[in-house]
Amino acid sequence: MRKLLLLPIRFYQYAISPLMASHCRHYPTCSQYAVEAITLHGAAKGSVLAIRRLGRCHPWSEGGYDPVPGTDHSPQTTQTRQ
């Protein structure tokens, strides 16, 4: 099921997205966010996360860094070892 959901997203990333100018407000892009969400959380929860992300993508959104919940992309604090 995951591969079936990822197929149109990958098609968009490789065939359509390069032809369009980059106007992304978030990092990672919405399509990459969807790939990561579906891969990490499965078809159902990943699709819900991706749809919620698309809902946050609009001209009045601040944008910025918005990682998929549960990924290692979250900022980490550096601690010095003694």
TrEMBL record:
Signal peptide: none annotated. The keyword Magnesium does not apply. Residues 61-82 are annotated as: Disordered. SMART domains: Haemolytic. It is found in: Cell membrane. GO terms for cellular component: plasma membrane. The keyword Iron does not apply. It comes from the Bacteria. Its main location: membrane. Keywords: Cell membrane, Membrane. It is a peripheral membrane protein. Residues 73-82 have a biased composition (Polar residues). Belongs to the UPF0161 family. HAMAP family: UPF0161_YidD. Could be involved in insertion of integral membrane proteins into the membrane. This is Putative membrane protein insertion efficiency factor. It comes from Marinobacter pelagius.
